[in-house]
Amino acid sequence: MAVTLLLDSPGTESIAVRQSPMAELCACLHAFDEPGHHPASAGWVARAHAELDTALLATAAVWAPLYGAFRARYLLPLSASPRRTLEEELHEVAGLPIGDFVAMTVQALIGKNETELAPHLSDEVLHRLRLISSSRMEIGARLRADPEGVRAELLDFLAAFAAAVFDAEWPVLRRTLDRDGALRERDLRRKGAMTLGDFPTAAVASPPGGRLRIVFDKLYNATTRVHDGRPCLLVPTVHGRPHFVIKHYPGYPVVIQYSADGAGTPTLETARRRLAALQDPTRLRLCYAILRNPVATAELATQLGMSAPQVSRHLRRLREAQLVHTHRRGSVVYYQLDAEAVERLGPDLLSVLYR
Fold first, then answer.
1. Minimum mean pLDDT range among 129-138, 168-177, 219-228, 265-274
2. Deepest of 15, 261, 265, 341, by most Cβ within 10 A of its Cβ?
3. E-strand spans in 129-231?
4. Do 323 and 177 share a structural domain?
């Protein structure tokens, strides 16, 4: 299954990098609700739990379905306007047509990109929500009875949560997001829309005479068009790591929320190459030998009881998978394992090599 973006132009006219305090607040709330998925946010989650009062903790649990795995669309940028405050973004949600607010909320509650039933909140929709969870059904019932009231309560909660534990964190997060945004903008200037192909699970397809297609390996199928009137916004996140979110509600910008360290995140094809390279027992022995110190090919051949050409062939596979660093001293090339690249494949694998 895949989400496919169709781009009218290979340039950057319809792609922009946007920093969003609302999107990062959403990521913080998601990490707060599901800390097991976000070990890098553990420190902040612990501080937030200690600082929040009981009432706000309980309210955060009530609204959790809206910032779960399927985020409510309005918790990410609704327009391409640059550099806005959280207050401005909350005001934009307050001004959403109520039908769009209801539909986006129901999408998040059901976890599907369906819109045809959402604005009416029929008995069928409430029944589907009941089958998922009673808490989602309760939000749905309140939404049908008083959608404006639900929106006002939600916005009050978001503002209160931000004031309690997010506002103090935001200046630090903003610096990280600015640095990543600058790198992403540089890539856009150099590569145009093709830079979208650098994201995890992305593949680029450009048929002759057709629109540029960026295909993302996701858990559902969807195709949406990106053009000047409907841009694609690239929104970096710190606390959203490791999730990669694509939102494409009709009539609003397409949003890609990606980890701010995304430049170091391998693509799906890179991950496959690395896993394939590490399936060979001999290459695993090589990884162990070059983990702590750089070693030359001749010495590796001696340690492993192999010929130098045999070692070179295995090292080439590791190099092609971007799993080793090399440096030269005179005529001798030394190899060392990229421990960080291995760790991104899985901490257990690195632990085995460090045994």
1. 265-274
2. 15
3. 202-205, 212-217, 222-226
4. no
- φ/ψ (deg, to 5) at 87: -60, -40
Distances (CA, A) of 73 to 78, 141, 192, 248, 337: 8, 20, 26, 8, 41
278 shares a domain with 299: yes
Please provide residue 51's backbone torsions phi and psi, each rounded to the nearest 5 degrees.
-90, -25
Number of domains in the chain: 2
Q: List, in sequence order, every residue forming a beta bridge with 214; answer none if it has no partner.
A: 5, 204
Whole-number Å distance between alpha carbons of 184 and 165 = 28
- Say whether both 259 and 274 belong to one domain: no
Q: Which of 218, 248, 264 is the last residue of a domain?
A: 264
What are the tokens at 5?
A: 């973006």
Same domain, 258 and 275: no
Amino acid at 20: S
Question: What are the structure tokens assigned to 173, written together?
Answer: 């997060």
Domain boundary among 233, 264, 295: 264
Q: In which domain, by residue range, is 84 found?
A: 2-264
* CA 99/CA 116 separation, integer angstroms: 11
End-to-end CA distance of the chain: 38
The reply to whether 170 and 275 lie within a common domain is no
Alpha-carbon distances, residue 325 vs 320, 339, 341 (angstroms): 11, 10, 11
Give the model confidence (pLDDT) of 25-54 as tens digits: 999 999 999 887 787 888 889 988 889 999
Q: Report pLDDT digits (tens) over 293-302.
A: 788 999 899 8
Same domain, 247 and 341: no
pTM, full prediction: 0.73
What is the CATH number for 279? 1.10.10.10
- Rounded to whole angstroms, the Cα distance separating 21 from 171 reads 10
Residues 199 and 347 in one domain: no
Count other Cβ atoms within 10 Å, centred on residue 36: 7
For residue 114, what are its two tokens? 């369906």
Residues in Cβ contact with 195 at an 8 Å cutoff, skipping those fewer than 6 apart: 15, 184, 187, 188
